[in-house]
Structure formats: structure tokens, C-alpha cells
Amino acid sequence: MDGTRTPAPTEKPVVLTIAGSDSGGGAGIQADLKTIEATGGFGTSAVTAVTAQNTTGVASSHVLPVEELAAQIEAVTDDFDVRAVKTGMLATTEVVETVTQRVADLSCPVVVDPVMVAATGDRLLTEAAESAYEDLLAAATLATPNADEAAVLTGSEPEDEAEARAAGQEIIALGADAALVKGGHMPGDAVTDVLVADSGTEVFSHPRIDTDATHGSGCTLSAAIATHLASGAPLSTAVERGVDFMERAVRYHHSVGSGPGAVHHLVDLRDDAVRDTVAESVQDAVDRLVAEDVSPAIPQVGMNVVAATPYAETTADIAAVEGRLTRAVSGVARGRGVRFGASSHVARFLLAAREHRPDLAAAANCRFDATVESALERLDWTVAEYDRDAEPESAESTMQWAATEVFADGADPVAIIDRGDVGKEPMMKIVATSPETVVSQLIEAADELRER
Ligand SMILES: Cc1ncc(COP(=O)(O)OP(=O)(O)O)c(N)n1
Ligand SMILES: Cc1nc(C(=O)O)sc1CCOP(=O)(O)O
Predict the structure, then answer these.
(1) Torsion, Cα of 432, 434, 435, 441 (10° steps)
(2) pLDDT tens-digit profile of 145-169?
(3) What ligand has the least distance to the C-alpha of 218?
(4) Which CATH superfamily hosts domain 274-451?
(5) Mutation test of ligand 2: which of 282, 298, 304, 365 has the most ligand atoms closer than 8 Å to its C-beta?
(6) CB under 8 Å, gap of 24 or more: what pairs does 146-155 form?
(7) Which residues in 125-156 are b (16+ Cβ under 10 Å) and which e?
């Protein structure tokens, strides 16, 4: 090898965003480009307006001459094989008309996010330009209005799912192929987005996330849908993936600025980027547990030690020991390697604990009996306990219910005791903010048990 190599060319579907610039980075062109890249596209842009904006509001806005906008669209469409377009802040009648003319010539999907007013209440579209949207809608593969925007387009504000369906039908009657009427501005514990198309209606529902940090969520959703359409996904799949992406971006928002924060467009990329490091941290933990011989702390069923990615949501995001650590004649047998998804019990316990203590990143299960209980007293650890008899029939899983029992009231235990049941070995679980801490505690417990 001479140290050089020929890089393999990568081909990503090109997506064009026609939108305004948000100096605050959470919405507009900035949100779109981050989202397009994060969802698998190559992002290009045509800037309609430059806003001086942050998390508290829009201080001023400068609309570019439409000739400059047209020149940007042409520069992109002349050179690139644009597979999808999305529109965002269009600011004035002239801009809406210019965009309408240009997208009418394109044969790719067009997602129209009819941006009118920012969440801070600042106008991003002149009132006079609202009626110009009718012609643009006629070129839209999908329009993505929120309830307020649907009210402007249809004349009445949808307040529930049935009214959202009716609003979607009206938007289709105006010429759009489909409408996704978003439920974020409608009341309720769940957010329900309604996709209306000629082929039928579909509902996408997810629990409302308790945060004001939704700045940029509309831009993010429409850019994600456009990118999935550019990749060839059918409309319903593109919407489903877009909604999932946006939900995670809101759930793990950035606390930036003095106003409500902004959505986290790169959450999945960041999570993926650290998977190897998380797996290695579990491997290091296994090496230490074997070297220090924690066999006195290993239960009959074996011990798992697990670590979560920063935005873990399922057991597939938790690295763990395949086959668990077990007791062997010579000490600790190290299982069959580290794999994401290799733990069920400890992983589910950690995931549920993180709903209350998001800083917890690692856990392990440990032997529990009278000897361990007296060792705990000497160790002076903060210990919690759950009682399996108190588990309601309606609980989905013991691990999830148990972690909620322990952590919901703000407790901060090192170890959690489960005294077991008929056919169920008593167990202790150790949780901490890192696998290193879990390992240190397991070693401490094993040493204490060995001394007796
Ligand atoms: C330049 C710019 N474009 C669009 C918006 C609106 O963003 P959106 O995600 O629709 O909603 P809010 O961020 O306003 O809640 C914007 N603010 N700036
Ligand atoms: C079988 C079992 N039950 C546990 C409990 O805490 O109730 S811990 C445990 C062993 C670890 O399981 P996994 O590899 O699925 O994480």
C-alpha cells in the first residue's frame, strides 16, 4: 500500500430546499440542509429571504430580489438531477409566484410547507401573499400545513382529527395531490397528524413531548419527507419516517438560546457515531470484571452488563453481553462477545430508568441473597427495592414497571433489590452514569462478599 486510495463515489438523491435563512440555525434553510443530509440526501438550496432570528423571535427580515432567487433555482436545477423540492418561507406574493413558475417545470415531488408565522408569533409571509399559495398548491405533491396554516388555506381552523381530515380534503380540492394536516397545534395528549390523499386517509399519532423547544420542527418534518420521497419511498412511508425523525429531533432538542431551544436535526447521526465506542465500553467492562474475578457477585442466571447510546430508545440501542457472564471453575466466563440487543431484562430496566434519570447510561444485574444484603449494609450504598407482588396485571413488563416504581419519585439509588418470586431468582441491579462506575461497584460488592 502506498498510502493513497481511490475513494468510492457516493450517490445521494439531490434535494432542493427553497426557503429562508434562520440566523439562529434551528429553522429555515439551516434546518433543511441538516435534515436532508441526516436523512440520506444531498442538500442544495435557494434562499428566499434572510432573517435575523434567534430562539426569542425574528428581529428583521430581508427578502432577496426574485431574480436572485430564480438564478439560484436555475443554478441547481441546471446542474443537478434534483429528485425532490421542498418549499419553506416564501415571504411575499412575488416570491410565491416565482417559485410556482419554477417548480411547475420540474417532474420531481414537491413538498410545500406553507410557512406563514413563526412559533414566536412573527410573520414570515405577508398577508397579501396568502392567496398566492393556491397556485403553488396545485403543483404540490404534498402540502404540510399546521392548524393555523390550514385555517388560512381553507377558511376554518381544524380542532380535532375529523376537522383535520376535512381541511385536508379542502387542500386537495385546491389542487395539492395530498395534505398532511399537522396536529402539533391542536389540543390533546397525543399529537395526531392526518395524511389525506385521493387514495385515502392515514393517521400518524405519537405522544406529545412536553417541551416548547419545537423551533424548526415544521421545516425539519417537510425536509425529511422530501428526502424520503427523493429516495423513492412511497408517500405514506416518507411521511411515517419523517414524523418519526421529527419526533426524535424534538424529544432530544437542543437547549440553546434564552428562548425555547431548537430541535436536534442530527440526533440519529450522533447516536450512530458513538455505537462502536459504547460497545467498546461494555467490552472493557467485561475485561475488568473477568480480571478482577467478580464471580461472588454473579447470580445463577448469569450477569449482564449493559450500556446505552445517548439517545437509546429500544433494546437494539443497548450494548450487552451475548450469553451473559457466568461463574466458571476458574473465575468468570466472559460470554460470547458484546452485541447491541443482547440483553432483554437489564436493558429494559435501564431504558425505563432513563425515562426518569436520562443521565443513567449503564447497568448490570447482580446476585442477591442474605449474604449480599448484609454486605450492602457494610458498603453503605443507597439502595431501593421493588415488590413484585405490587405489580399490576396491566403492567407491560416487570422491568419497565419496576424501574418506574423506583425512579419516578426522584430516587437516586446505586442498587435496586428484587427479592424474586416462585421460580424467579432474587436479583439486584446496579445502575450508574457509566459502565466504569457499574464495574467499580460490582468489584466492590464481589470483594465484600469474598471477605465473608
Ligand atoms: C427562516 C424561517 N423559516 C421557517 C420558519 C418556521 O419554522 P417552523 O419549523 O415551521 O416553525 P417555528 O420554528 O417557527 O416554530 C422560521 N422560523 N424561520
Ligand atoms: C434473567 C434475568 N432477570 C433479571 C431481573 O432483574 O429480573 S436480570 C436477568 C439476567 C440478565 O438478563 P438479560 O441478559 O436479558 O439482561
Answers:
(1) -40
(2) 999 999 999 999 999 999 999 999 9
(3) 1
(4) Class II aldolase/adducin N-terminal domain (3.40.225.10)
(5) 365
(6) 146/181, 146/182, 146/184, 146/185, 146/218, 147/181, 147/182, 147/183, 147/184, 147/185, 147/186, 148/116, 148/117, 148/185, 149/114, 149/115, 149/116, 150/179, 150/181, 152/114, 152/116, 153/114
(7) bbeebbebbebbbebbbbbbbbbebbbbbbee
Domain ranges of the chain: 14-272, 274-451
This complex has an ipTM of 0.91
Whose C-alpha lies nearest to ligand 1, atom 14? 118
CATH 3.40.1190.20 fits 14-272, yes or no: yes
Per residue in 133-149, pLDDT (tens digit) is: 999 999 999 999 999 99
Q: Which stretch of DSSP H or E encloses residue 141?
A: none
Closest ligand to the CA of 119: 1
Tell me the backbone φ, ψ of residue 257, rounded to 5 degrees. Answer: 75, 170
416 lines ligand 1 (CB under 6 A): no
